[in-house]
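Sanity check

After download, print the first record. It should look like this:
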Amino acid sequence: MAALIFITGASSGIGQALAWRYYQAGYTLALVARRTEEIQAWAQSQALDAARYRVYRADVSDIDSIVGAGQACLAELGVPDVVIANAGISVGMDTGVRGDLDVMVRTFSTNNVGLAATFHPFVRAMEQRGSGALVGIGSVAGIRGLPGHGAYCASKAAVINYCESLRGELRSSGVKVVTLCPGYIDTPLTRQNRYGMPFLMQPEAFADRAFDAVAQGATYRVIPWQMGLVAKALRMLPNALFDKVLAGRPRKRRQDEA
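Expected structure tokens:
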């Protein structure tokens, strides 16, 4: 029987690239998104074998919605070998603007609670089987806070720490927990950025390296590795110097900005 992978946020960007990489490796795909029509159109354009993929409509910010999708996958396809909690949002915020507090709530509901809810249906089943990989998509932005990115940076820092906690909980179960931290990837989200993006990668290149990281049993990996060095260097900077380096850097677009 072909290996099975469950991927959220599969309608575009990193999620779609991961789906294609795993399909090429022979996996059956369980693809999740709010915009299922886009997944279907992509699957048809790539001539995917209809017997090797299933599409589930779910909103990861709605716990019952994403848990229901996971339960449907278990009932119809069985226990996945890999689950990738990829769905996420990135919107700038200004704490002085009341509406941006709602942005922060939405960001955490999607990027954090949604990630845990994505894993939830599969944890016990994977433990009983004694194998599987739960993959959380973090970000280099979770390593140090960037001005105007409060919600996103905080949410991705939470992803990194949550996955580390979960990895310890499942250490003796045979279930692996993998944290992948992308740098700048050329997706619809990053194309709206108003600042330079060093070491920008194409989603397909990221997917290749992510596939290898999971296959190799990595627990944590920054992709590309160059951004890992940049992030470590920034982490080591004293606060005063870090603030000076970022002074004047354009902020991420907020929800009410064109």
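If your output differs, re-run the checksum step. Summary of this record's structure: The two ends are 48 Å apart (CA to CA).
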